[in-house]
Hints:
By secondary structure, the chain is α/β, with parallel strands linked by helices. The protein has a single domain (3-171, 267-376), classed as FAD/NAD(P)-binding domain (3-Layer(bba) Sandwich), CATH 3.50.50.60. The chain is 36% helix and 26% strand. The chain contains 13 helices and 19 strands. The protein has helices at residues 10-22, 46-54, 58-63, 87-93, 102-110, 159-164, 233-240, 246-253, 284-287, 296-313, 322-347, 353-362, 365-376, and strands at residues 3-6, 26-29, 41-44, 66-67, 70-74, 80-85, 98-101, 118-119, 124-129, 135-139, 144-147, 149-152, 170-182, 193-198, 202-210, 213-221, 261-268, 275-276, 279-281. Helix 10 packs antiparallel against helix 11 (322-347). The mean pLDDT is 96. Bound molecules: flavin-adenine dinucleotide. Residues 6-12, 29-32, 42-43, 123-124, 153-155, 159, 177, 179, 217, 263, 283-285, 291, 294-298, 300 line the site of flavin-adenine dinucleotide.
Amino acid sequence: MKYAIIGAGIGGLTTALAFERKGIDYQLYERVPEFLEVGAGIWLAPNALQVFEHLGVLDQISANSSEINRITIGHPDMRPISDNPQDNIKQLFGYTSKAIHRAKLQALLLKEIPEHKIHLGKSFQAFEQLSTGKVQVTFEDQSQATADHLIAADGVNSKVRQQLFPASKTRYTGQTCWRGVSAFELPDAIKGRVYELWGDQVRFGFSRIAAGQVYWFAVALDQAGQKDAPGTTQQKLLRMYADFNPLIKQIIQATPQARMMRNDIIDLKPIRQWHQGNICLIGDAGHATTPNMGQGGAQAIEDAYYLSNLIAKAKNPQQNVFADFQKRRQKKVNGIVSQSWTTGKMAHWKYGQGIRNFILSKAPKKLIEQKMIEMYQIDEFV
Ligand SMILES: Cc1cc2nc3c(=O)[nH]c(=O)nc-3n(C[C@H](O)[C@H](O)[C@H](O)COP(=O)(O)OP(=O)(O)OC[C@H]3O[C@@H](n4cnc5c(N)ncnc54)[C@H](O)[C@@H]3O)c2cc1C
């Protein structure tokens, strides 16, 4: 086997699909014993969609998602602070962002990958770089696999990264996030919109992901590792957002308690090196970002695109392309990690909220759009 991929999340699945399309030999190992239909929604920005178009799955994603034609940061009552129509983005790229259920996205990607190349219930435990130049992986069940190269796509708390770069550190933002999918239909006038409403140190964001389904998230400040007592989340959120537009109450009320999840928002303090020898980190394992720019998944998807193209275009099939991969990707990714961190902090300022909102409302639309366009661009490989 040439490439062993650890982790079948968004990055690992897209990498497997890209390898499949380009005829690159791989096997994919995932710790969960089965894929369950859980999770919330995800916004797929045009950079991610271009990759999916390249891989031939864009039509299926479009058919199973909801298009976003306007992105609004607003006050709790939904009055806009910064309102950004996506018409020019659509004209330039052919589509705007799409909102989809994560489980649906996962299922669409899985369908394209041959079953015999996916190994479930394989939790990575450790690797050993062998004198033959190969890498041997040991799983928690003590089974082993040997490959020429190891791709770590095992997420922000990557065990591969912890062994490869033990000094790497995740950072807690001081913010905790509840997410859910509500059985709710948005009014027609806002069906194609993403809202993120900024209150007094709390935020609430939402968009439609399919007919009768609204994905939402709620962010507040808290200490790390706090949990809600069972059965209390819905009431807690209703209290937290009591002074927001009544629509928020309806969205929360229409979400079954069991479909709500809570995670602390962390990222990975940028690391200098994403690879060593025949091992390379991709996606959150190498460069987890906070979710404030909706780009973590998109960057994992871009990684799959660049890595697979560099491998496919290498003159010598034994060539290690990891250094080139990092060179092409790191500046953009680090910029996103840094901007996303700053945006998240600003959204929860205790003081200066009026000035912040004023500056945001006056920011030139053209400039915001230009920044988005730059972020959505990916290189062509000819
Ligand atoms: C609240 C929130 C909202 C977000 N919204 C967006 C958004 O709208 N748009 C966007 O682009 N991004 C968004 N993101 C970011 C996005 O979810 C991540 O960047 C993306 O999931 C990273 O993909 P990944 O494949 O690197 O990691 P993951 O998706 O975390 O996948 C890692 C996989 O590895 C497996 N794994 C872990 N450990 C092991 C092991 N030891 N052995 C084997 N397998 C293992 C896991 O089970 C999992 O399947 C959001 C993140 C958060 C927290």
